[in-house]
Design brief:
alpha/beta, FAD/NAD(P)-binding domain, D-Amino Acid Oxidase, Chain A, domain 2, eight-stranded mixed beta sheet, globular
């Protein structure tokens, strides 16, 4: 199988190609002074900018994006607007306790609602659908994991809010032709969108509100000067009263501030998308409800249909960079892409002749707590958000509203969320995170191999 490297501005993903020709905004070419500068033109940055500008029409707000809006995870993700917070709900409850876990999942329910309302109220061209989310098991260990998750959701009192129900093997086999699923957990409270279309719609909304969006404007240095924060970009500076670092997996690359490097680690996940399936091919595999899906492996696979009738599958493995510089050059993942294709065709043998049309990878933000974080750097003039763990579509939308409240100096129900200002565990040194990631990855792969012996998947 021949794998072509993708050029990263126009062809970052299938979503970018599907969008068609795109003309980015001009870069910043003259020095400016603003009330709020937001670094990063993804879901979080654009939502924060629009929310704050709507609250403060007379304020000057600028978004500074180093490449093009949606260049990072916001333009490359699978488009799941979901309620998952952190890792497994069992882990979240064990780590943070019942009360905080329940608050976290209710926040995520609100996040999905917020994203859906934004799209519907503003009639955004995001290819949005709301088919729900099905977690499936095909081994005994996976079934036990799924049972444990359902029990935790019920214990927290959030299962009904998520529209959650247990799905028996017989029902799964009546819907899917091929996969030997043993159990499922369905959640109605999940949407699907085209992330590239959506992030560029968010750019339009932000600009309509009066936000200045500068693309191809990398921030080279951030410095405090008295009551201002000064951001240096090529050929110009931005003086701001407050700054939001909406850079997630790229946060460690920022220069001039202490502790940005230790907040998170970028980890790469990979995705493939098939050619369009014919009506006969869809009929041969079932999946009539076209919901989002995910299995219960430790290194998960996630699946979804696209609006034009393809199948997307991602996951299977993750990679983390080596060394203190933490290079972002991990987008080329041919071995993972091949593994994803093999897995898809093992699940659905009727698709053995279907070709893979698109392949890409992208970084998500991971911290040592495995928990999202919104915090301050030095004082409340600089706000930073990291740790979405690949579940940031809905989260970043509601976090934008939360951060706008923080910028306004307001105490609200959102700002009371316990991830705000929490004392997260920092990554110690350059080698420890890499070694930790390697060991964890090896353990998870071993668990999956042992659990999947004698199974078709």
């Amino acid at each position: 199988m021949t794998v072509d490297a993708l050029t990263m501005n126009e062809d970052t993903s299938f979503w970018a190609r599907d969008y068609g020709p795109y003309s980015p905004n001009r870069p910043l070419q003259e020095s400016i002074k603003v009330d709020v500068a937001i670094v990063g033109g993804g879901f979080l940055g654009l939502n924060t900018a629009r929310e704050f500008k709507t609250d403060n029409p007379g304020a000057r707000v600028a978004v500074l994006e180093g490449a093009v809006v949606g260049y990072g995870a916001s333009g490359r993700n699978a488009g799941f607007s979901m309620t998952l917070f952190g890792l497994e709900p069992q882990v979240t409850k064990l780590r943070w306790g019942r009360e905080r876990a329940a608050q976290a999942f209710r926040y995520m329910v609100k996040a999905v609602d917020s994203t859906k309302s934004l799209i519907e109220n503003h009639k955004l061209d995001s290819d949005y659908s709301h088919p729900g989310f099905l977690r499936v098991a095909y081994t005994k260990p996976q079934t036990r994991t799924l049972e444990g998750a359902f029990k935790v959701y019920q214990d927290l009192g959030v299962a009904s809010e998520m529209g959650m129900r247990w799905v028996e093997k017989e029902e799964l086999r009546s819907e899917f032709n091929g996969p030997d699923f043993t159990a499922g957990l369905f959640e109605s409270h999940t949407g699907l969108l085209n992330p590239c279309k959506h992030v560029r719609e968010l750019k339009r909304l932000a600009m309509d509100a009066g936000v200045d969006v500068y693309e191809q404007t990398p921030v080279e240095l951030i410095a405090r000067r008295g009551n201002e924060v000064v951001l240096s970009v090529p050929g110009a500076t931005v003086r701001a009263e407050k700054v939001v670092l909406a850079t997630n997996a790229y946060t460690h690359l920022l220069k001039g501030l202490k502790h940005t490097r230790s907040r998170q680690l970028p980890a790469w996940t990979s995705v493939i998308v098939t050619e369009r399936l014919t009506d006969e091919q869809w009929a041969s595999i079932g999946w009539s409800n076209r919901q989002a899906m995910e299995d219960c492996r430790q290194l998960i696979h996630y699946f979804r249909p696209t609006a034009d009738g393809r199948i997307l599958i991602g996951g299977q493995d993750v990679r983390a960079p080596w060394g203190s510089h933490r290079s972002m050059d991990y987008d080329f993942s041919p071995s993972v892409w091949r593994g994803l294709e093999r897995h898809l065709k093992r699940m659905f043998p009727a698709l053995r002749d279907v070709k893979v049309a698109y392949r890409w990878s992208g970084a998500v933000s991971v911290n040592l707590d495995m928990t999202p974080e919104i915090g301050f750097i030095g004082n409340e003039r600089i706000i930073c958000a990291t740790g979405c763990l690949g579940h940031g579509v809905s989260l970043s939308h509601l976090n934008g509203r939360l951060i706008a409240d923080l910028l306004n100096g307001e105490k609200t129900e959102l700002t009371d969320f316990w991830i705000v200002g929490r004392k997260a565990i920092r990554l110690p040194g350059a080698i420890f995170p890499f070694v930790t990631a390697k060991v964890l990855r090896a353990v998870l792969r071993t668990v999956d191999r042992v659990g999947e012996r004698n199974t078709p998947a």
